Amino acid sequence: QDNSFEQFIINYCNEKLQQIFIELTLKEEQEEYIREGIEWTHIEYFNNAIICDLIENNQTGILAMLDEECLRPGTVTDDTFLEKLNQVCATHQHFESRMSKCSRFLNDTSLPHSCFRIQHYAGKVMYQVEGFVDKNNDLLYRDLSQAMWKANHSLIKALFPEGNPAKINLKRPPTAGSQFKASVATLMKNLQTKNPNYIRCIKPNEKKAAHIFNEALVCHQIRYLGLLENVRVRRAGYAFRQPYEPCLERYKMLCKQTWPHWKGPARAGVEVLFNELRIPEEEFSFGRSKIFIRNPRTLFKLEDLRKQRLEDLATLIAKIYRGWKCRTRFLLMKKCQIVIASWYRRYA
Fold first, then answer.
1. Segment Actin-binding: which positions (predicted)?
2. How many alpha carbons fall within 13 Å on the CB side of residue 88?
3. What is the three-class DSSP state of 124?
């Protein structure tokens, strides 16, 4: 019910994770269709980059203004921080405050004077401004670090490396908000280099009980997790895509013209393969470098045909091997029989 600095930075991290989810699914998926020359009607979705910018912008972001208030000389309070927010973010469509110059919220009794509200992707959240400045200034003073570093216990000494006299840094220690922002940036950079898979968990009720399905709660989660937009993009798009070379390599045994070797371009080989298998044209599209398959059932059909063909090929290999083995044994016996007969005739 009461959200302070801790919940604010947690929600900031959630916004960044939602943003990378959008980047890696909705945005990248649609851009790939355009890149590959596939006919595509763009599907609108909410991009929460505007909310992330409201929080982390280096000049006008909430974290930047909080750091500025913590570092500036003079009297600094939570109210002065809120006043600064009202001056800079007054016209932002995702920021609300009673004290802001935007008169829309002057009569909003649900928003106290000492609070501000941010419209996150998951809904509106009200933050109590009290304690923001002190919590952001959660600094470990240099003399305390030096005292702890002088301890005889090796673990305590290792926990305070900044107390080492050889590493004394006269710069002011970073604020809690800037440290968290840098940590989130490192996390995002790490995730961008990966190929993540997402598992979205839906709570059917707030009681953690079986056989209770709260439809309103489930609909709310589906809406703010971006699942509706994701399903729309997936249904309008293609379930599977693969470069031509691996696709031809995997399924070339299903067509006599491409098996065992195809000497032309990979795309032409895939076209010959799909024509031979008589797959309906609406089930696939040819991109510049990839084949796009619309429905999973088409892919399952290809996999079933491949599995059956591999069994047939295994049977053929086994048959040829057994024939070769029997013929080799027969030729050896025939050679032995000739030798034995010639020796017998010579003896007789």
1. 184-206
2. 19
3. strand
Cα→Cα distances 241→20, 36, 40, 286, 301, Å: 21, 11, 15, 10, 15
- 51 close to 15: Cβ distance less than 8 angstroms: yes
Question: SS3 breakdown of the chain: % helix, strand, coil, rounded to 5?
Answer: 60, 10, 35
301: Cβ–Cβ under 8 A, 6 or more apart, which residues? 279
The full set of domains in the chain, from first to last, is: 5-138+174-193 (1.20.58.530), 240-347 (3.30.70.1590)
Residue 162 token pair: 């900044």
Maximum pairwise Cα distance, the chain? 129
Is this model's pTM higher than 0.85 or not? no
Q: Where are the beta strands (DSSP E) in the chain?
A: 95-97, 115-120, 123-128, 240-243, 284-286, 290-293
Mean pLDDT, the chain, whole residue set: 83
* pLDDT for res 239: 75
* Consecutive H or E run containing 42: none
